[in-house]
Design brief:
Radius of gyration of chain B: 22 Å
Distance between the termini of chain B: 25 Å
Oligomer: heterodimer
CATH superfamily of the domain at 124-304 in chain B: RecF/RecN/SMC, N-terminal domain
Shape of chain A: globular
Structural class of chain B: alpha/beta
CATH topology of the largest domain in chain A: Dna Topoisomerase Vi A Subunit, Chain: A, domain 2
Largest sheet of chain B: 6 strands, antiparallel
Number of strands of chain A: 6
Number of domains of chain A: 2
Number of strands of chain B: 15
Strand content of chain A: 5-15%
Order of helices and strands of chain A: HHHEEEHEHEHEH
CATH class of the domain at 124-304 in chain B: Mainly Alpha
Chain lengths: 199, 363
């Protein structure tokens, strides 16, 4: 146990994801040693973020203002929607520069263990967007794990009767990798999802 | 695999020992409680990173020591084939164990599968015959993963789906609202896909295992007893999707998944009679050993190199005739066995080591 304020900070840091008691202690003492202005800069960044950033009213990505930069960008193709679990997935897809449509962030995946069902996700909000925005294709871009797959399957069933194109991202081998280093499951999936090669 | 050299530091009751097992059979002799099984446990630990006795990690570190070290030089491909690997495991009573393969940190325990592999028989294996279905499912599933590593992911995913589905069933509290129904449909679809794949794999494994086990049993028991293995998975008749749909009301009422691969069993019969209820104690012990040795052969054939065979206290399990039959039948690979009594003459191990209070002496 340390003097009041130090222990308070350690406790707060220890609540962050991926930070254990040891790391919390190390960070706290690092901050204690820092010049005051640097520590204040960090504190201000946290406050700024909480005050200025909220979720986009349309797609639930992080946004400064009412809607996020992608939703307000007139150059984006507005009839194609990429459905992801978290805002960080938006960043990942954006880095590819392959996708010119807009996003819809579910804010999680179906997982009863964590108490998350369709009602806890932005599913109703997704359905409400389809007609007004004249969406013609929905790309299901959830994680390729059990919960992500289940969420994709749930959405696919929900969207199937609505007469729009519903696609799921492929899973397979990393580009530039070697077959011999691929794990069996990934390689198995890649074989399953093989494509005809045009002659 | 072929174990060339083993070093232990503060593992169980061994302060510091080293052993160079023979290429063929090594016998560890000594009274009870001297540490024979601990030595087998250390070798098996290198392959699975867990104790075959189900002991927690802290039990493996010698009392008072802050860590245990298991180090081994081995040939993953077997005697004189491929290159030698150095596997080092550092066990801490509290906190995470560290494993290095050729001085490189190991990322996943399953990556060891290609380097160190063992088949273990221990007196506890009588549970395969006399215990609950969980023991038999584990036997089949472990053999599946050893012969086809891809299935480990199917098993893990299926377990995860079962947990998610079970939680959803309990949350529903017996009522099937429209929302629960659609979510349940999704988990059912996922579970059917995985369950059908696992059921198929288990069925074909049991088919392959049966003749191997029957042959070993006949050799061990010195009879022609006709041992039969039958895989019990009633849901496979119409497929898992159909079975789950039929059981849905019951599942909702009880808040658990009542059908599926997690309820499967394998029945053993000797000369047409159920081994669990009708076989004698001696027959049951012979069958348990035959299951392990049959499984060992299956993995050896599937992977091309036999795992190292570890036989704990095998003579206390069988009478003299049966012991002799076992020895004749020992597969042509490296093996280590433990015994409290004298080593039977017909056996002629290449190396006999006496284990006495945490030390090793020439036998």
């Amino acid at each position: 146990m340390y003097a009041g304020p130090v222990q308070d900070l350690i406790d707060e840091l220890g609540r962050l994801p991926g930070v254990g008691p040891k790391s919390a202690q190390r960070i706290a003492f690092h901050l204690l040693k820092l010049p005051k202005e640097e520590a204040v800069r960090l504190a201000r960044a946290v406050i700024e973020m909480k005050e200025r950033v909220a979720l986009c009213a349309r797609c639930f990505n992080v946004a400064e203002g009412q809607e996020c930069g992608i939703c307000t960008d007139p150059r984006r193709e507005h009839r194609v929607l990429c459905v992801v679990e978290e805002p960080r997935d938006v960043v990942a897809v954006e880095k590819t520069h392959e996708f010119r449509g807009r996003y819809h962030v579910l804010q999680g995946a179906i997982s009863p263990i964590e108490g998350i069902g369709p009602d806890q996700l932005k599913v109703r909000e997704l359905l409400a967007r389809l007609e007004p925005e004249q969406i013609s294709e929905v790309i299901l871009c959830t994680n390729p794990n059990i919960e992500g797959e289940a969420t994709a399957m749930y959405l696919a069933r929900l969207l199937a009767p609505l007469g729009l194109r519903v696609t799921r991202i492929a899973s397979g081998l990393p580009v530039g990798g070697d077959l011999e280093y691929a794990d069996e499951l990934t390689l198995g999936r890649a074989l399953e999802g093989r494509r005809e090669v045009g002659a | 695999m072929r174990l060339r050299h083993l070093w232990l530091v503060d593992f169980r009751n061994f302060p510091s020992v080293e052993l160079e097992p023979a290429p063929g059979l090594t016998a560890l002799v000594g009274a009870n409680g001297e540490g024979k099984t601990n030595l087998l446990e250390a070798v098996a630990y290198l392959a699975t990173l867990s104790s075959f006795r189900g002991a927690p990690g802290e039990a493996l570190v010698r009392a008072g020591a802050d860590r245990a070290v298991v180090r081994a030089e081995l040939d993953p491909q077997g005697e004189g084939r491929g290159s030698t690997a150095l596997v080092e495991a550092e066990l801490h009573p509290a906190g995470r164990d560290r494993v290095l393969v050729n001085r490189q940190p190991l990322r996943r325990a399953s990556d060891l599968a290609g380097t160190a592999r063992v088949s273990v028989f221990s007196p506890d294996d009588l549970a395969l015959v006399k215990g609950g279905p969980v023991h038999r499912r584990r036997l089949v599933d472990d053999l599946l993963v050893a012969s086809s590593p891809r299935l480990a992911a199917v098993q893990a995913d299926l377990e995860r789906v079962l947990r998610q589905r079970g939680t959803l069933l309990r949350q529903a509290g017996g009522r099937l609202g429209a929302d629960v129904a659609t979510t349940l449909d999704v988990w059912d679809a996922k579970m059917s896909e995985l369950g059908d794949a696992l059921g198929q794999a288990r069925a074909s494994l049991v088919d392959q295992l049966e003749p191997l086990v029957a042959k070993v049993y006949d050799q061990v028991a010195a009879t022609a007893a006709h041992v039969a293995l039958t895989y019990h998975a009633p849901w496979r008749v119409g497929g898992l999707a159909h079975a789950l749909a039929a059981a849905r009301t019951e599942d909702l009422r009880r808040g658990v998944t009542t059908v599926g691969p997690h309820r499967d069993d394998v029945a053993f019969a000797i000369a047409g009679l159920a081994a669990r209820t009708h076989a004698s104690q001696g027959e049951q012990r012979s069958l348990a050993l035959a299951l392990r040795l049959g499984g060992h052969q299956l993995v050896a054939e599937a992977s091309g190199t036999p795992p190292m065979l570890l036989l704990d206290d095998v003579f206390s399990e069988l009478d003299a005739d049966r012991s002799a039959a076992l020895l004749v039948h020992l597969p042509m690979a490296q093996a280590v066995l433990t015994t409290t009594g004298p080593v039977p003459g017909a056996l002629a191990p290449e190396l006999v080591v006496r284990v006495r209070d945490g030390r090793l002496e020439p036998g």
